[in-house]
Every structure is written in structure tokens, then in C-alpha cells.
Amino acid sequence: MPSFRVLIAGGGIGGLCLAQGLRKAGVDCTVFERAPDIVRSGYRLHMNGAGGRALKECLPENLYELYMQTSRTTPRREVFVQLDHLGNELGARPHIGPPNDPVRPHTAVNRRTLRQIMAVGLEDVIRFGTTVTGYEDDGDRVRVHLDDGSSATGDVLVAADGINSVIRRQLLPGVKIVETGDRGLYTTAPLTDDLAATLPEALFDGFAQVLGPDGAMIVYGVFQPRRPIAEAVAGLAPGARVDPVDPYIMVNLGVVADSPFGRETPDLWQASAGELHDLMRRASSGWHPALAGLVEHIDDSSIFPVAVRRLEPTDPWTATRVTLLGDAIHAMPPSFGAGANSALRDAAALTRALTTAVDGRAPLLSAIAEYEAEMRAEVFPVLRASADPRAYDMDFTPVDVPVPGRD
């Protein structure tokens, strides 16, 4: 298809990976990102085999290597660990997804670093500060309307604009956002050698969750890059705009709505950083000294509140020139650390699908329909499992959740 063009609404993890994959395949695309730049939207991000393989497929070789070198050092165990508030290990669960790389496994990244890496080379593709507000699909082309009053036309429109996707609301208005009532605080503490020496060994495994007797939950995740980020950038992508990041440990508070701690927790969005820090001190009061001590080391400027929301899996829909990926269609709670990895999986799969259509190996709508069916089959079970009350049980996996319509 000559002059084939893909329009991507959203420059998050999934949208940028798709743009890199399309660029690598020689397919023209434009990304419309509402933020003025790549902003902070979280900290440590778990990576599994599915997400890592998608990056290898979509990124140029030097950027994939940059991702690997700036990802977290290989831990003793790449597992999800549960501890009690006294530091005793209660159980461990392998991360979901396909088998990991046995030599240099996919571990974790700093979220903003990954997005900055994926933006390298796309300077002429990403339009920052531009929001897609709607679209028109006449069956032959798709026109997107932008918040500055202008528009753009392409052959396919991809909704990569997150849980509040305006594209999904127009395409699939029946999909509802579920407000779980659960809330949390994202924070980090600088990880110095002296601090690391005081911590239980289990905190250096893949990811650690600690449950208090009153229902307060804190999760801990170490980020120690395999190579200093500035050094890796200088060697693999000289001049690239990727900020250095020192080692840290993510210390996130989880506030479960129906727990005793949750019922006594004030409005997180009305509190100051100091008050939020005090709330985390209250949550960890009486805990193992090292676990409570980490809360003391939190950088107040890193604290910000989040609300846990999700989407319900929707019934199959008729494929059109408008499709979706990532949180725009399967936003999920963080129970399995699968949200970003699923978005990356989608990006690689959609790149393959659109490339087959551009190359004339499949009709466009058939290729999109196949991508959407595969995405529903692979990701919707994880979405259902992540929303299940048993999601934090050590012996619970997505295969334990029944799929509606199947025996």
C-alpha cells in the first residue's frame, strides 16, 4: 500500500513501542501525545518475557541494548514475594508470562527512562502537546480531530491513549471504567550501599509485598541499573535525551478500601507531602525495623497518590480501521505487574498485523481482526485475574479464572 499512514493517539509505553516497530518496518506513522514532554508517570516498572521480546522485536538494535543495559540488575530470584510485617517470608510466586531470557533476563526498568529510550529517533514522528479529541471513519480513511482545531488523516487509527481513551469511548461506548475504591501512594527512597546493607534479602528479589495486621500494604521494588544510565547512553545512543537515574527502592503504599486501614485513610489528594509521609509511617508502625526504616528514607518530593481503576473485558467487536492497545482496552490493577508488558505485547503484535496488510499479504481489516482476537485471547484472562480478589494469593494464577462463555 503506497503512502500508508498510521495515526497513534497517545505516546505512552504502548504507543511509542508501536511507533518504533512501524518505523523499523518502514511504515509511516504519527504519534499525538497530549503532554508537553515525557513526564513522570510512575517509577519502577516490572518487565517480563512478553514485554522484553516485544521491545526486541520493535526497537532498533542499539536502543534495545540500551534498554537492557539500563534495566535492573539480575536478582537472586525473579519472583513476587509476600512477607508479613515482621519480615517473615510467607510465599513466592513466579511472574506470569513466557519463559524469561536465561542469560540476561528481563527484570525492571525506570518507567520514564524506558519512554525516553523509545522516543529516540522519533523526533519527527511525535507531536507533543497535541490531543486527539475524536475521529471520523468513512471506511476508506480515518480523520482525527485535534484539540487545536486541526485534523490529520491516515489509513488506521490506534487508540493508545490510556484508560480514559476518547477513541475507545467513541468506538466502544459500552466499555465502563471500574472505580475499585483502592488507592495508593507511589514513592521512592535513594538506595545507598549503607541502606542496602540493612535490608532483608527478599526485598532484592523481583518484587516484595508486605501486609500489615490492619490491612495496610506496602510493596517494595529495587531499581539498580546494570550500567549507569548516562554511561550506557553515551556508548549506545550518544546525544540522546535520556536522564540519569540513581539507584532507588520504590516504596508504594496500597490502601485497600474495605480494610481497617483503608477505612481510616483520609483523602490522599487533599493532603500535603508531609502528611502523606506520616500516613506511610502510621501504616508501617510496629513493623520490622528495616521495613519501617525504609519509609523514613522516602524522598517527600517523590510522593504522589494514585487511584486503582480498571476496565471490564468487553465482548468481541467488528474490526474497523480504528483499533486499540494497552490500557485503552485492557487497563488492569497492578496485581500481576502485567499492564505495561501487555501494552508492549500489543504493540509488537499490531506492528506485525499492519505490516502484513501493507505488504499485501492480508486484507487490512482481516489483519486488524486477527490482532484484536489474539489480544482478547491472551490479555483478557490476565485482566480478569488481576481484578480477582485472590490476585495477591501466592498460588493464584490467571488460568484459575473461568472465562465467560466457556465450560
TrEMBL record:
InterPro entries, per the entry: FAD-bd (IPR002938), FAD/NAD-bd_sf (IPR036188)
Keyword Flavoprotein on entry: yes
Entry-linked Pfam families: FAD_binding_3
Source superkingdom: Bacteria
Keywords in alphabetical order: FAD, Flavoprotein, Monooxygenase, Oxidoreductase
Domain FAD-binding: 5-171, 295-377
Protein name: FAD-dependent monooxygenase
Species in which this protein is naturally found: Streptomyces pseudovenezuelae
